[in-house]
Amino acid sequence: MPVLSRYICAESQSVRFGFLINVTTILAMNNGQDESEFEISLVRDDLIFRFYRRIGLIPKEGLGIVRRAIFFAVLTWLPLVLWAYLSGTAIQDRIDEPLLRHFGIHARFLVAIPLLIFGEGLMHKVITKLIPYFYTSGLIRADQRSLFKQALQNTLSLRDSSMPWVAISAIVFTTVALQPPYQEMHELIWANTGTPTAFNLGFGGWWMLFVSRPIFVALCWVSLWRLALLFVLFKRIADLDLELVPTHPDRAGGLGFLEKIPLAFSLCVFAISLVLASRLAHEVVYHGLQVQSLKLLTVVFLIVIVLLFLSPLLVFFPKLSAAKRKARLEYGALVGNHGRLVYKRWIRHEPITDESLLQAPEIGPVADALSLYEAVIQMRAAPIGKAAILSIALPAALPLIALFAIQVPIKETLLKILASLI
Questions:
Q1: Longest pairwise C-alpha distance within the chain
Q2: What share of the chain has pLDDT > 90, as a percent?
Q3: CA-to-CA distance for 47 and 344, rounded, in angstroms?
Q4: d(Cα 171, Cα 218) in Å, to the nearest integer?
Q5: Cα 9 to Cα 302: distance, rounded to the nearest angstrom
Q6: How far apart are CA 282 and CA 298, in angstroms?
Q7: Average pLDDT of 393-410?
Q8: What is the spatial distance between Cα 261 and Cα 388, in angstroms, rounded to a whole number?
Q9: Phi, psi (rounded to 5 degrees) for 198
Q10: Is residue 252 predicted with pLDDT exceeding 80?
Q11: Contacts of 184 (CB under 8 A, 6+ apart)
Q12: How far is the CA of 151 from the CAs of 23, 233, 279, in angstroms?
């Protein structure tokens, strides 16, 4: 029973003083180890990163985020604008739809491409900071340390492989090859140098088709590849024998810190949503499309984008679900035993031969014992909470809200909702 008493004390502290357990675990498990040995970047030192460094787009130190963002924005957007200006199709009234009116083009090349590149910096910062916490928090036991490092090394090997980049190149090439005939692409009306009946594409149109669009498509697929790489890493970690704490205050067995992971992809999500919303905005403003007809499209888009970018966290669902089912039985028995002893002493007035469970100072009264079981009941089956969902849903929704604001009085609607609540 003394062993049981100490066990109860430790578990009770995880509810009442969860942060103390984390600090103690860090001190015990880290053993002076440098956290940097567990850092992993999904961006640094992969094939495209090494290529950028070789041609000078990335300096010897750092990620070259600003340099690359400016370079690719200029490369994809400026030639279109210069050619359109010189040919009189940028802002003049010679044609019905000059380049200026095509919001999607400017949003894609002038805003979304830099956002995707800045997103790499955010991704690098968030993930390199959080991955070591698996070990320093005690989720990875000392005897699992080598397996954890092996999972990281395998992921790094996959990151540095050339095959994913061959696949991305093939996808981009296929996208270019299978794109509809340019005379049917509405976005290229401004690039027509002939008559409406004889469509002749000028330099700006060709540049957009074979330089600007492929670069944007490639950057989108690079972000998705890094999301897939994170999924693989988390799957390998989830396969380890994690030291989950069912009564942990984060309600995720100690995995609550992973709620910050979706933030790493928030700029990527915003860029994708911005391009979609800006293209639809052109149809609404200049072609009479009703935003009400876009409700289904936007809802489906939001659902898909949230599920896609939260998918790496879902790999912990089986592990957390199993831990919760087991803990409900274990803690149910523990609380039941405690309750029976209380009942015998104070209701039936029977003598108690072993009072170590009742005298455990940390478990305290019945109310504290019940808090252990309630903590288990409230445990989530995945480390996904409001913060994780909002990290993806909010940047995805903001451009779409702006789109609907073109025809729907968003401000007045929100004020009415607020007034009704007050």
A1: 102
A2: 56
A3: 69
A4: 8
A5: 45
A6: 16
A7: 89
A8: 7
A9: -130, 85
A10: yes
A11: none
A12: 25, 7, 42
